[in-house]
């Protein structure tokens, strides 16, 4: 039980701005943290929904909600998305692409990817509503659980990617996914009855699967190009999954 408490603290400290004391850091704790990552996403999504309740423009509320989410995560996932876009967009071999990703500045591929992603997220969120944002945050962190399953290598020694790569059993990731899907079905059923918002029925579980699928597609491409995962790859997976969830909720609902 103590180990899982350590994992929970590691998850909160790594994936959010919430202050926690992390006493133990090793691969066992890192694996537990990646399993618990969707719960951190649930908390982040719930808090980030607050601006959506403000009166006025839904688009403005969506922009403020995404801004709050970026603040609560220190913008790390957005930074990872931009860095991965620069690395993959460079067209260079793996070692050189990883060097591009380590640079502190953001290149043209990163800027364009970041701007387009935020525009799409904002427009979709304004249409889909708060339930979709919570689902997006949870699914983004569920993508981390799968990205850290055994068999997924680290692209380079050191850093967050090396710490968490291969730390999660696939069976555990599957259980976490089933829990998220069951929750999505239950919430979606309530939403479909007008209880929780506009995106209802089968839309939420479909959106979760679409988000996870989009992230896994990017993961496969990144591993093929870079040789494994890095912290930037993990951040990009979060944003990719979240964007796909929001888009599906906005379009299908």
Polypeptide structure, described:
- With 253 residues, this protein is mainly α.
- Helices cover 74% and strands 0% of the residues.
- The chain is built from eleven helices and no strands.
- The chain has helices at residues 2-15, 27-48, 58-72, 76-89, 94-102, 108-128, 130-147, 159-164, 170-192, 203-226, 231-252.
- Helix 2 packs antiparallel against helix 7 and helix 7 (130-147) packs antiparallel against helix 11 (231-252).
- Mean pLDDT is 92; it is low at 193-199.
Care to give the gist of this entry?
This protein has 253 residues and is mainly alpha-helical. 74% of the residues lie in helices and 0% in strands.
Task: Describe this protein with a few key phrases.
253 residues, single chain, mainly alpha, globular
């Amino acid at each position: 039980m103590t180990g899982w408490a350590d994992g929970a603290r590691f998850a909160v400290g790594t994936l959010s701005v919430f202050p926690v004391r992390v006493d133990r850091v090793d691969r066992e704790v890192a694996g537990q943290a990646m399993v618990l990552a969707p719960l951190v996403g649930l908390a982040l999504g719930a808090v980030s929904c607050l601006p959506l309740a403000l009166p006025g423009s839904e688009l403005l509320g969506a922009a403020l909600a995404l801004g709050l989410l970026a603040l609560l995560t220190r913008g790390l996932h957005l930074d990872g998305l931009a860095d991965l876009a620069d690395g993959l967009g460079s067209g260079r071999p793996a070692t050189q692409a990883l060097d591009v990703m380590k640079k502190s500045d953001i290149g043209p591929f990163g800027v364009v990817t970041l701007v387009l992603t935020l525009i799409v997220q904002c427009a979709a969120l304004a249409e889909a509503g708060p339930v979709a944002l919570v689902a997006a945050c949870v699914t983004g962190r569920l993508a981390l659980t799968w990205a850290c399953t055994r068999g997924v290598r680290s692209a380079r020694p050191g850093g967050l990617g090396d710490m968490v790569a291969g730390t999660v059993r696939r069976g555990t990731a599957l259980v976490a996914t089933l829990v998220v899907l069951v929750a999505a079905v239950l919430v979606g059923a309530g939403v479909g009855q007008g209880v929780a918002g506009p995106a209802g029925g089968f839309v939420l579980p479909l959106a979760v699967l679409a988000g996870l699928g989009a992230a896994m597609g990017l993961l496969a491409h990144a591993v093929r190009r870079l040789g494994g995962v890095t912290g930037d790859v993990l951040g990009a997976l979060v944003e990719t999954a979240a964007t796909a969830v929001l888009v599906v909720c906005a379009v299908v609902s």
